Amino acid sequence: MTAYRRQGEVVLSRASDEPSQDPVVASFLAFLERDLQAHPENIRPVTAGTLAEAKRLTSGIEVDLDKALPEDDDDA
Predict the structure, then answer these.
(1) pTM over 0.90
(2) Whose C-alpha in 18, 24, 34, 41 is 20 to 30 A from the C-alpha of 1?
(3) Of 34, 18, 38, residue with least CA distance to 26
């Protein structure tokens, strides 16, 4: 069962027994697969330098994964 809030209401829906697949995600993953097979030279490891740069770029940004999104952020 899935529950979510939409415009102040709680909406429940019965979950399907079949795994669902998002067509956008599936298309993107298929594109990625084709591109990586066609251009394996573009595959690069995540190096210590790359990780350090990512940490530098995101330093000071705090994220609370348990915090609810604002109501106006609901595009359902």
Answers:
(1) no
(2) 24
(3) 34
